[in-house]
Design brief:
The protein has helices at residues 17-24, 33-49, 64-75, 89-100, 118-127, 148-157, 177-180, 206-213, 226-237, 249-265, 267-287, 318-324, 352-368, 377-385, and strands at residues 6-7, 56-61, 81-86, 104-109, 132-136, 138-139, 144-145, 161-165, 184-188, 199-204, 304-305, 327-328, 330-331, 342-345. The chain is α/β, with parallel strands linked by helices and 386 residues long. It binds 4'-deoxy-4'-aminopyridoxal-5'-phosphate. 4'-deoxy-4'-aminopyridoxal-5'-phosphate binds next to helix 3.
């Protein structure tokens, strides 16, 4: 396939062919015993990937935004106080969602490319009695990685429900949900989990279930109400047929396949592969003389990178030139810096060839745009680090 291009955006990503094959089989009934088994296994594997053995997993047709919506709709009642720790576009989205359900929201916003210091978060938690805090593990708009363990510790210390938006991190960055005291880990299928778009995924703690059960007002979102979904998830776990909304059957089959591949690789191996890919990408980008939006190695995500355009580059044509070299990249997402940077996804099935092809295309497009650098200086870093 001479015209085949590599999709290197931060989701959707390139999917394993075994996963894609699940999308092409005839759709079984959602109450077929084999499908029920497979659904049960997916729920079990979700808890394994998030390291939350005593949690409750949800698999629902929808996107990552639905998973955020479900967390807010089910845990917030009018007047509840919520703290959003924002490292970019998706933090601010969470604030909007929480407000829809009547929360009084405070936002602690990081400087672009950085995280909010833990001392500031602690000060804020001491200043008011919050019911819930949310943070974005990897913000896809800035390629910033938050310190999930430390935020989980703070949440536990101050008895606040902690929600981790893991849409760009689950199965790519290390998460120990139960050990770190995180009440909700939510994600979507199309990123490091490695399944085409269309599934909203959550794993919630027993603490979150208790908080949900203590509500005094009904959930104002019908589709996302956990009262509708909890019995369905429990029924699948107990190998019983049940129905609330028709599951996205082929996507769930693809999810089970991908989760199997993830645990077969081993979570530690997988996180290490992402770590090395992230380091290699950042080293290559720096060797080409491009700056990164994320401020330093410690706060840099391993699932994507956000390089700034060199000043002399025509940003209206640059990504098209990379595309002509066979690599699809994404533009900037932060509205105020949209034309200052672009984004490269490197998660899921990512391997050395993908990284080499990507940096090779980037180098060629830079050269064609008149940017002076030594050809091969980026790809050398990939070979050195990966
Ligand atoms: N949170 C983060 C960190 C994301 O990257 C995204 C999607 N890019 C979302 C939430 C929203 O997910 P979706 O587009 O699947 O609704």
């Amino acid at each position: 396939m001479k015209s085949r291009k590599l999709l290197m955006i931060p989701g959707p990503i390139e999917f394993e062919s075994e996963v894609m094959q699940c999308m092409a089989v005839p759709t079984p009934s959602h109450v077929d015993p084999d499908f029920i088994d497979l659904f049960a296994n997916s729920l079990k594997l979700m808890k394994e990937v998030c390291k939350c053995p005593s949690g409750q997993a949800f698999i629902v047709a929808g996107t990552g935004t639905l998973a955020m919506d479900m967390a807010a709709a089910n845990l917030i009642e009018t007047g509840d106080k919520a703290l959003v720790i924002s490292t970019g576009y998706f933090g601010l989205r969470f604030a909007e969602i929480l407000k829809r359900y009547g929360a009084e929201v405070d936002v602690l916003e990081a400087e672009v490319g950085d995280i909010v210091p833990m001392e500031l978060i602690e000060q804020q938690l001491q200043s008011k009695s919050y019911k819930l805090l949310t943070f974005t593990h990897v913000d896809t708009s800035t390629a910033v990685l938050n310190d999930a363990k430390s935020i989980g510790d703070l949440g536990r210390k101050h008895k606040v429900l902690t929600v981790l938006d893991g849409v760009c991190s689950v199965a790519g960055e290390e998460i120990k949900q139960e050990e770190w005291g995180i009440d909700v880990v939510l994600t979507a299928s199309q990123k490091a989990i490695g399944v085409p778009p269309g599934l909203a995924l959550l794993v919630i703690s027993q603490n979150a279930i208790q908080a949900f059960e203590k509500r005094t007002s009904p959930v104002t979102n019908y589709y996302g109400d956990w009262s509708n979904w909890l019995p369905i998830m429990k029924a699948y776990e107990n190998r019983q047929a049940s129905y609330f909304g028709t599951p996205a059957v082929n996507l769930v089959m693809a999810l089970e396949k991908s989760l199997q591949l993830i645990v077969k690789e081993g979570l530690d191996n997988r996180f290490d592969r992402h770590l090395r890919a992230g380091k290699a990408m950042r080293a290559a980008i720096s060797a080409l003389g491009l700056e990164l939006l994320s401020k330093n190695e410690q706060v840099s995500a391993n699932t994507l990178s956000a390089p700034k355009y060199p000043s002399q580059i025509d940003t209206t044509t640059f990504l098209k030139a990379v595309n002509q070299e066979g690599i699809i990249l994404a533009g900037g997402l932060l509205p105020e810096l949209k034309n200052d940077y672009f984004r490269i996804g490197h998660m899921g099935s990512i391997n050395r060839s993908d990284l080499l092809a990507t940096i090779g295309a980037l180098e060629t497009a830079l050269k064609k745009h008149g940017y002076l650098h030594e050809l091969g200086s980026g790809t050398t870093q990939i070979l050195k680090h990966f």
